[in-house]
Amino acid sequence: MGGGRLVFVFAHPDDESFFCAGTMARHVASGGEVALISATRGEHGSQPEPPVCRPEELGRVRSAELRRACRILGVKRLSFLGYEDGRLAEADFRRAVRRLAGALARYRPDAVVTFGPEGVYGHPDHVAIHRLTVAAFEKAFGGPRRPPGPERRLWYVAPPSASWRYRPHDWTPKPPGRRESSPGPASGRAPSARPVPTVPTPDAAIDIRDYLPVKAAALLAHRSQRHNIERAFGALWDLEAGTPRSPEAAAALGREDYILARGPRPAGLLVDSLLSDGRSDGRSDGRSDGRSSGQGS
Fold first, then answer.
1. How far apart are CA 253 and CA 164, in angstroms?
2. How far is the C-alpha of 139 from the C-alpha of 134, rounded, in Å?
3. Parallel, antiparallel, or unpaired: how do β-strands 111-115 and 255-262 relate?
4. Which domains does the chain have, with CATH numbers?
5. Are the CB atoms for 227 and 47 separated by under 8 Å?
6. What would the pLDDT profile of 54-77 be if each residue is shown by its tens digit?
7. CB atoms < 10 A from the CB of 293, how many?
8. pLDDT tens, 93-147?
């Protein structure tokens, strides 16, 4: 499906490349438009060793990195809301919602993409931008308490495209002062007893296999976050070559998953566009690798 406008709303520079770069690039290649709104400039993020810049320069550097990533992905419109990294939850909620709703109304998107309620892995800024975006979407386009405007979709980034970024023990903090012991047969517990995030069945599993080199280039534009990129993708992906390390890695990396939060429900699992009705997705290229089944990677 060609045309249409997607707006992505995230908390930090690099969120878009980690979770949605392939979807962005595919939508632009199909003739659509993409806009991105970043709540912060990521000025308090970590850096690799040696660091790319002085700490006080990080916000400027990460803003420039995001602009570079946007050029790679074909994103024509980029906005910063200007909130402080790490403190988005402390922003005046009503004022922030008004600002974001105004931006959404100006962009007139066919669909909006943001984090779900859990922020993928519980980052406070991710959770905050979820709450702000949902409220702004309803303020701009209608919600349960007012007649809806033109039908638009609100999408949440979802596992499995996000879940492999963090190993199970990254999701559950260890109790302070307590050492982990390896459970034996007498413990009655399986060796990996830590809870793992629930993986919902996606409403869209966008096929991005043809856009993995573009996604790799967008990720590498975020030089100050190279350590996090390697941590998330290094075992699966040769980032410099832009190629997966194995067929299994290609299956995991070759889709970006989303949950529908608002708007008309598609007839089937979407694999080519977040704006499709789902009636022909997955049947146009002759590929049959299980993507349209909604199975996790």
1. 9
2. 9
3. unpaired
4. 5-167+198-281 (3.40.50.10320)
5. yes
6. 999 999 999 999 999 999 999 999
7. 12
8. 999 999 999 999 999 999 999 999 999 888 999 999 999 999 999 999 986 555 5
